[in-house]
Amino acid sequence: MTIGELAAYAGVTVRAVRHYHAKGLLAEPERDASGYRRYGAADVVELIRIRTLAEAGVPLARVRELLQAGEEEFAAAVADIDRRLRAEIRERQRHRERIARLTAGDGLALPPEVVAFLDRMRELGVDERIVRVERDGWIPLAAHSPGRVAEWVARKREQIADPRLIELYLTLGQALDRGDEDAGLVELADRLAACLTRMADERGVAYVGDVDASPPFVELMDTLAFDTVPPARRLIELLAERGWTGWTKLERVDPGQDGGTPSSP
């Protein structure tokens, strides 16, 4: 058979056959009297073996070694390749499940107690954009520290039982509809700062927020929030002028200092 017929039987391109010839994987027959290279059935079998190993992700250098190996070594190598492929399939399946959770709504992306907390925020009239920021923050938190989710949710549920915190959330929602130069945003920042100060004074702490994640993780969640609701950045700047900084963990600072410096608890 011709090289074209060989390629068709093995399910590859003529270019691939020539590539395997160049790599020394498939012997190249001599030309016949008509000037054509003729291939036999054994070449089809060999080419199928090469194609199968290559498609399984085996480097061509290793393919060459396997083609020259004895039956026992070849069988062991194939078994090892099969184990690797099975592991890759399982890992890809896990990726598919995670993607499905991320696209199928809160119930599949987050633990049930977090979903219940988000639903409670909606019941209390919190702006859906604020709920979305909360949800996006919980996704990396739950993935990073699943063992602490129940503890953190319990704290958050206790917090939203305080009408002043709900007032804070509702005020935040109003702020999202204000432009950076809107005078109303300044008024809302005043209200938020006053609310935060009252809450912190009563608790005797210098911060508001009980998800005590590491600083890099807090920074990650702040970035998520700012990307979701860009007006939050201007609001945080205004709050810093009024003695508060941060978003995920709002901390009391000394107003007037560059960037604000957290004060002692």
Task: Set out the fold topology.
Layout: H1 3-10, H2 14-22, H3 41-55, H4 60-67, H5 71-103, H6 106-109, H7 112-123, H8 128-144, H9 149-159, H10 163-175, H11 183-203, E1 207-208, H12 215-228, H13 231-241, E2 244-245, E3 250-252
Antiparallel strand pairs: 1-3, 2-3
Describe the model.
This protein has about 260 residues and is mainly alpha-helical. It folds into two domains: about 5-100, Multidrug-efflux Transporter Regulator, Chain: A, Domain 2; about 105-250, no CATH class. Helix content is about 65%, strand content about 5%. It has 13 helices and three strands. The protein has helices at about 5-10, 15-20, 40-55, 60-65, 70-105, 105-110, 110-125, 130-145, 150-160, 165-175, 185-205, 215-230, 230-240; strands spanning about 205-210, 245, 250. Strands 1-3-2 form a three-stranded antiparallel sheet. Helix 1 (about 5-10) crosses helix 3 (about 40-55), helix 7 (about 110-125) packs antiparallel against helix 8 and helix 8 runs antiparallel to helix 12. The longest helix is centred in the first third of the chain and has 33 residues, at about 70-105. The radius of gyration is 32 Å and the shape is elongated. Residues about 255-265 have low confidence and may be disordered.
Q: Could you tell me the number of beta strands?
A: 3
For the sheet with most strands, the description reads: 3 strands, antiparallel
Low-confidence stretches: 255-265
Q: Please, how many helices? A: 13
The gyration radius over C-alpha positions equals 32 Å
Distance between the termini: 85 Å
Mean pLDDT: 78
Provide the number of structural domains. Answer: 2
Structural class: mainly alpha
Order of helical and strand elements:
HHHHHHHHHHHEHHEE
- Amount of beta strand: under 5%
Shape call: elongated
